[in-house]
Amino acid sequence: MTFSNSNSWAQALSYDQKKTFHLVMQVAGSALAISGSVIRIQGYSGDAFGTGHGIFGLLALIFTVISLIGGVINLYIKKKGNIIKIGHALVGCATLILAFVTLIMGMDKDIFRIYVASSGANTLIALAVISLIGVMFPACFGVYRRIIN
């Protein structure tokens, strides 16, 4: 996602700078997501994976770890095959989709709607869907471009 040509700030960076920035963002974001998930799961008194929100959250967590492993493989492998780059991009896209679905399902819970009102929750859900589409469209186009080349 960091490499998107539609990012005005990214156009000024070299490929190596983009790659470094992507690495830093992914490691920081993944560390926060993984640690937050572990803290939340440990502090949950009920069945953490008994709802769609919990199941999608667990899947997002698993895909985050897989994406990190794929990123490290992609970073250190000497002969970079296109299949590894495509696989890493696809897992990253799947991770984002799962994370957004988890977020949306969390915003649709009754407890969330009590705090932000139903209209506020609906607005946030709509913004999350728009953000997901905005983030995924260039990413899917990039994966498609890698596949056909």
Automatic annotation (TrEMBL):
Residues annotated as transmembrane: 21-43, 55-77, 89-107, 119-144
Cofactor: heme b
SMART domains: B561
Localization in the cell: Membrane
Coiled coil: none
Keywords, ordered alphabetically: Electron transport, Heme, Iron, Membrane, Metal-binding, Transmembrane, Transmembrane helix, Transport
Enzyme class, first EC level, given as a word: translocase
Protein name: ascorbate ferrireductase (transmembrane)
GO cellular component: membrane
Enzyme Commission code(s) on record: 7.2.1.3
Cytochrome b561 domain sequence ranges: 1-107
Molecular-function annotations in GO: metal ion binding; transmembrane ascorbate ferrireductase activity; transmembrane monodehydroascorbate reductase activity
Membrane-protein topology: Multi-pass membrane protein
